[in-house]
Every structure is written in structure tokens, then in C-alpha cells.
Amino acid sequence: MAEYAPDRKRGFCGSFLEFGALAGFSLGAFLMLSVSAVLSDARMEAWGWRLPFLVAAPLGLIGRTEIPRRKPATGRFRRGLEREPEPAVAAKDAAV
To answer: Does residue 55 come out as left (phi exceeding 0), alpha (psi in the -120 to 50 range) or beta?
Structure first.
């Protein structure tokens, strides 16, 4: 998100990534609370625990396929990919 933001608003727009993660976690917890309040313990153990996964699977597929298709990589990101990678350093050489 921050790559698409204007220079002066990059931090503000980038903060929505954290907000989205918190909102998703809260929504998932609320969904699980609702399901466990409606179902009995036996039904929850038998099949109810699968419901949040069934809700999350289509959302994950949409996020994995549609978002990259509609939002191509920015110039900043492509320039970062074009840079020469730094050479790998062995762990024994990295320790001083």
C-alpha cells in the first residue's frame, strides 16, 4: 500500500496494513465467538470448528488472485527487483 501512496502520505497509508491485520484478527475472533455461542460443545467439536476455515478460504483465494491482477507492481518495486543481489555470506564469516 505504501508504494502507491504519495511521498508525503506514505506512512499514513502504510499504517492501514497494520489496521487491516488487526481488523481481520478481530473479525475472525468475533466469528469464532459467534459460532461457539450458537453451537453446542458436541457440535463445535464435531464440525463447527471448520466454519471459520470455510469462510477464510474464499477470502484467501480472492486475495491471492484478484489483488495482484488488479494492482500491478509499482516502479519502485520493479527497480528493487532489478538491483544486483548482495553476495551471500557464510555464517562463520559473518561472526566477528
So the answer is: alpha
